[in-house]
Design goal:
Immunoglobulin-like; 6-stranded antiparallel beta sheet; 5-stranded mixed barrel; 39% strand
């Protein structure tokens, strides 16, 4: 149930369970694909299996609205980023789970299905371009971490025809030093080599390159125009090889294919590729199947528990998986390797259980007793029914403990599972989601107890309906919290928010104001005014300002127009231009060339500031009023600062009579008579003997 710790490169560990065959055709993309691909014969016959999992973004936050495809079945992630596919036809020893959503690179996970729910976690990578180029121009793009892509300049559209126009280039380096690499990579490190043999891989690094046209369409490099890709050698890679096989990911079938040779050039792995997808520099190994059963100190199985394996082949390599309902995880590992097994965060955060297993010369099974002096276990039990009293058959419990979230599948309304927790931290919160009926229980906040934590019987009656499909549940559209959805109408268009696709009436549908694509518009506040964008018709800070000159020249006062709007960091998502007339600001023409040192030679009373939200694209016009030269008197001696600096009388209070004095010291010469009195009476405020 815990997150996975750091890795350097990866080996394959996928759960395996022998299930009865049926007569269905295994489907990953189509039956035709399976029949025409002899490599898929490695994966056995067709079975039915259940899948449940979580999809997150690069910040490890859940993403709602992700389309999930397993075999011929589809599902969509909910507001917690969770999906469930109750019954999919897959291969006996191979299933391919794909995740797609606009704004992200397609993600996936490949595994061998087990009995009961198969749990996965997928991290989607954003489609944010690192550069925009023009087709026809060869160009090398460098990333700050040393990643390089040399583009030939010739591109094709999704139909294979030549493409002309601007090209957005998206590059993601999957670094072996990055803890999240195992969640970001597609499929698993299962591969077909040049001889057509099944292999497991150990990676020294990956890269994903995506090309998008002006309309967002997928592009690729033209035939006969290869590109060169380079990634830096990871810090955890010891004695990097001079050459290493290069592999590309087969997005149709869900595994890697050997596709060239990578070379070590300086401190970078280099490859020449004929198309773009995920690319991977890996060693390949024969594999054996190893089943690992995890039990606690009392011999109880540890289901839905994350485990990590490390191999010494590259000094430090690893992969992650989750045990099934029986506490077992099985899969392919490199033959004759001694493996380090880690159960991360067992009980307490950063308190890992670690042991070694193997080497394995043939298929084998081991039982590992997991213990930790600071860890306790409890049997977490409950009965969950829907609002009609029937057992929940397609749902999950979301458990939040010690700031980490995990999910436990609910298949027959019953829960009885051993949970590990830290002896010094017992508090948890939990909620059950009934996916079939779109309802949930209330949130339970309590403490783990030994030997059993029993929630009793709970019913899921909280409605999770989203009537207008805008990403905001109906229960969250009750803005005034009076349990009446019909009187919440933010834009006053006589359509209640829960039925209104554009809640604030700004012409942008609520679902399209989810700018980070996490499926939750409620966490978007691009102008920082504490009003979510989907309820804010003007997502631009509308603040006028007054500015004092920073010099003391009354005839030519100088102003820094950017100080309030740009230099204070008050508006991080907005850009500004400054104009002398309202018409110029409205039409966004003739901006002031040097707004940080603007000389008001025309004695204007104000200028116009055009603010544009870089996320929403909305603009507003604000005014900046000129206040002239400052009349501040820092030392309170009756002379303004400018009078003391220039010696020129500005008509306020005392006259400096040409004397230059210290604006921060009331008595510049220290003769116990302040500067104002001396200047007024004709004595020298800079001469302590003249008073």
């Amino acid at each position: 149930m815990k997150l996975i710790t750091k890795i350097a490169a990866l080996i394959v560990l996928v759960s395996f369970f022998s299930c009865e065959n049926d007569n269905n055709v295994p489907i990953n993309e189509s039956s035709e694909a399976g029949e025409n691909n002899p490599f898929l014969q490695n994966f056995g016959d067709a079975i039915q299996a259940r899948f449940i999992g979580t999809v997150v973004n690069e910040e490890d936050n859940p993403i709602a609205g992700v389309t999930i495809n397993v075999g011929s079945q589809f599902a969509v992630t909910d507001t917690n980023g969770v999906f469930s596919v109750p019954n999919a036809t897959v291969f006996q020893k191979f299933a391919y789970v794909k995740a797609t959503k606009a704004g992200f690179i397609d993600g996936s996970r490949s595994l061998v299905p087990t009995a009961g729910p198969n749990q996965v976690k997928i991290m989607l990578l954003s489609l944010d371009p690192v550069a925009t180029i023009t087709a026809g121009q060869a160009l090398t793009i460098d990333l700050p971490d040393g990643t390089e892509v040399e583009l030939p300049g010739d591109f094709t559209n999704q139909f294979g025809g030549p493409y002309q126009g601007e090209v957005d280039v998206i590059i993601k380096h999957l670094d072996v030093d990055n803890n999240a690499m195992q969640l970001q990579m597609p499929g698993t490190l299962l591969a077909e080599n040049l001889d057509g043999d099944l292999r497991v891989l150990e990676s020294v690094g990956m890269i994903s390159v995506e090309l998008r046209g002006e309309g967002g369409e997928e592009l690729n490099i033209a035939a006969g125009s290869p590109a060169t890709i380079k990634i830096p050698v990871g810090d955890n890679i010891v004695n990097p090889p001079a050459t290493i096989p290069l592999w590309s990911f087969d997005e149709v079938n869900g595994y890697w294919k050997e596709d060239g040779i990578g070379e070590l050039v300086g401190n970078k792995f280099v490859g020449v590729v004929s198309h773009f997808s995920f690319w991977n520099w890996d060693f390949q190994y024969p594999a054996v199947t190893v089943c690992i059963s995890l039990v606690d100190a009392n011999g109880n199985p540890l289901p839905n528990t994350a485990l990590n394996l490390y191999s010494p082949a590259l000094n430090s390599t690893g992969t992650y998986g989750y045990t099934n309902a029986n506490g077992e995880e099985c899969g392919l590992v490199p033959q004759n390797d001694t493996l380090t097994l880690v159960v991360p965060d067992f009980g307490c955060t950063n308190d890992d259980f670690t042991t070694t297993i193997g080497p394995f010369s043939a298929d084998d099974a081991v039982t590992v007793t997991v213990s930790n002096s600071n860890a306790l276990t409890t049997n977490f039990t409950a009965t969950f029914n829907d609002c009609n009293g029937a057992a929940i058959t397609n749902g999950y419990l979301q458990l939040v403990y010690n700031n980490q979230s995990s999910i436990i599948p609910i298949t027959n309304g019953m829960l009885s599972q051993v949970i590990d927790y830290c002896s010094s931290i017992t508090a948890y919160s939990a909620q059950v989601i009934d996916l079939n009926n779109g309802q949930s229980t209330v949130v339970f906040n309590s403490n783990f107890t030994m030997p059993t934590t029993d929630l009793g019987m709970q019913m899921s009656c909280v409605d999770l309906t989203d009537t207008d499909s805008d990403g905001v549940l109906d229960i969250n559209e009750d803005i005034n919290n009076n349990n009446n959805l019909d009187d919440d109408d933010t834009d006053g268009d006589s359509i209640p928010n829960y039925q209104d696709e554009d809640d604030d009436g700004d012409g942008v549908n609520t679902v399209d104001e989810d700018y980070d694509n996490d499926g939750n518009p409620m966490n978007e506040d691009s102008d920082g005014d504490q009003i979510p964008d989907y309820l804010d018709a003007v997502d631009v800070a509308n603040l006028s300002n007054e500015t004092l000159a920073y010099n003391c020249d009354y005839n030519n006062p100088e102003y820094d127009l950017t100080e309030f709007y740009e230099n204070g960091g008050n508006f991080p998502n907005e850009t500004f231009t400054y104009h002398e007339t309202q018409a110029d600001a409205d039409n966004n023409i003739n901006p002031i060339a040097n707004p940080s040192a603007y000389v008001n030679v025309n004695n204007l009373q104000l200028i116009y500031v055009r603010a544009t939200n870089s996320i929403t694209g909305q603009s507003s016009i604000e005014t900046n009023t000129f206040l002239g030269v400052s009349n501040a008197d820092s030392d309170q001696d009756g002379l303004t600062n400018c009078e003391e600096i220039t010696g020129i009388d500005n008509g306020f209070g005392c006259s400096p009579n040409g004397n230059i004095t210290d604006p921060n010291v009331a008595d510049t010469d220290g003769d116990n008579v302040n500067d104002c009195d001396e200047a007024t009476n004709g004595t020298d405020p800079n001469d302590p003997t003249d008073f």
